[in-house]
Design a protein that fits this description.
- It catalyses: L,L-cystathionine + H2O = L-homocysteine + pyruvate + NH4(+).
- Its cofactor is pyridoxal 5'-phosphate.
- This protein folds into two domains: 4-31 and 63-259, 3-Layer(aba) Sandwich (Aspartate Aminotransferase, domain 2); 261-392, Aspartate Aminotransferase, domain 1.
- The protein is of the alpha/beta class.
- The protein starts with a helix and ends with a helix.
- The protein contains 13 helices and twelve strands.
- The protein has helices spanning 4-10, 43-51, 65-77, 90-101, 116-126, 170-180, 192-195, 232-241, 248-259, 261-280, 299-305, 326-329, 377-392, and strands at 83-87, 107-111, 132-136, 152-158, 183-187, 205-209, 223-227, 285-289, 312-317, 336-337, 347-351, 367-371.
- Bound molecules: pyridoxal-5'-phosphate.
- Pyridoxal-5'-phosphate binds at residues 89-91, 115, 158, 162, 187, 189, 209, 211-212, 221, 223, 340.
């Protein structure tokens, strides 16, 4: 198999869709096919299309080469995946992944560090459908076995966790899941399959918010789920039945982002580590939470399982509360205040994990999450230095 950088350049570029007779002919990128109706030559052709609805053009909602090129590219990037489906948001991808594995009367285990809207979907929709949910300590590892009930069907992981960046022992949890016949769903948005090849670790359904690093430019919302061979037919079927669809224009934006993702991730990692290392030396900072820093509680597992780090991490402050953090963030020149991340630009957000947690509590001072973009790290450091001076001047 070729290296990941080569794969990311070639993935999903099928010459059938680029008007070429081989990979070297035709246009480089799959064209944008805007389509609802697909026209057939004859009754025989209509019936043939209906007999094999997942092969070739059928109806716009079943996709065109614009969607298939992105799906195939994502499948190729997570070796071991049998296929990928797309969703209008990352949250929709998580919702369909959960609907794929659980039925009424079942029970699912969800990490307490999960992305907040994942929890809200579980609490407000899954429970209404008679699917029970238990939140577990993200650091539970093989101990998750004790939480498995007779009706448990699936375990949802997110590593590192949203806001607090706990690294989960994915192989230990997967081993329990396989022994007990449970499906595993991983929210792999932070690492992408480039930094955490999830299928190789035995994950069944690997989800990404393409909104983040694949899109990479803060201008598109798309989600994906890649499935193991065992789960692919059911994922695909559930996705179809819920009428999930992503526009060809948004797919083209994701494919454009994807081609530079490996390069961008390396720069996000380097810039983030430079800023994180500097924050560790600042007297106002209590703790920097970044799994790629030696000394971080997640460092050993991160080093064992991941091929790199991305640009999102957090730090806590020694003094003050969330209400005081305006002095730090309001006048930053290079950090935007806003949701989402994974774009080329730096972002900052005060976060409160304990507002939603139930199985564990986060210990520490006011928590600030940063996404480190592609700016010069020296400028970001100078900006944060001035912000932290404004912050400490309040006390
Ligand atoms: C942003 C995010 C999502 C959801 O993505 P959207 O496209 O915004 O719905 C899911 N999981 C994680 C970890 C995220 O950061």
């Amino acid at each position: 198999m070729t290296g990941p950088n080569t794969r990311i350049v070639h993935a999903g570029r099928n010459s059938d869709w680029t008007h070429g007779r081989s990979g070297k002919r035709g246009v480089v990128n799959t064209p944008i096919y805007r389509a609802s109706t697909v026209l057939f030559e004859s009754l025989a052709e209509l019936d043939a299309a209906n007999a094999a609805p997942d092969r070739g053009l059928n109806y716009g909602a079943r996709g065109t080469p614009s969607q298939w090129a992105l799906e195939e590219a994502l499948t190729e990037l997570d070796p071991g995946a049998a296929g990928t489906r797309l969703y209008p948001t990352g949250l929709a991808a998580l919702a369909i992944a959960l609907m794929t594995v659980a039925d009424s009367g079942d029970h699912v285990l969800i990490t307490d560090s999960a992305y907040d809207p994942t929890r809200l979907f579980a609490d407000r929709v899954l429970k209404r459908m008679g699917i029970a949910v238990t939140y577990y300590d993200p650091l539970i590892g093989a101990g998750i076995e004790a939480l498995v009930q007779p009706n448990t069907r699936a375990i949802l992981l997110e590593s590192p966790g949203s806001l607090t960046f706990e690294v989960q022992d994915v192989p230990a949890i997967v081993a329990v899941a396989k022994a007990r016949g449970l499906a595993t769903i991983l929210d792999n948005t932070w690492a992408t399959p480039l930094l955490l090849p999830s299928m190789a670790l035995g994950i069944d359904l690997s989800m990404q918010a393409l909104t983040k690093y694949v899109g990479g430019h803060a201008d598109v919302l798309v989600g994906s789920v890649s499935a193991s061979p065992a789960w692919w037919p059911r994922l695909s079927e559930t996705t179809r039945r819920f009428g999930q669809y992503v526009s060809p224009d948004d797919c083209a934006l994701c494919l454009r982002g994807l081609r530079t993702m490996a390069l961008r991730l390396r720069q996000h990692e380097a810039n983030a580590l430079e800023v994180a290392g500097w924050l560790q030396t600042h007297p106002a900072v209590e703790r920097v939470i970044h799994p790629a820093l030696p000394g971080d509680p997640g460092y050993a597992l991160w080093k064992r399982d991941f091929k790199g780090a991305s640009g999102l991490f957090a730090f806590t402050l020694k003094q003050g509360t969330r209400a005081d953090t305006g002095a730090l963030i309001d006048d930053l020149a290079h950090f935007g205040i806003g949701f989402s991340w994974g774009g080329f630009e730096s972002l900052v957000l005060p976060v409160e994990p304990n507002r939603v947690r139930t199985a564990t509590q986060f210990e520490g001072g006011a928590l600030i999450r940063v996404h480190i973009g592609l700016e010069d790290p020296a400028d970001l450091i100078a900006d944060l230095d001035a912000g932290l001076a404004r912050y400490t001047a309040q006390f």
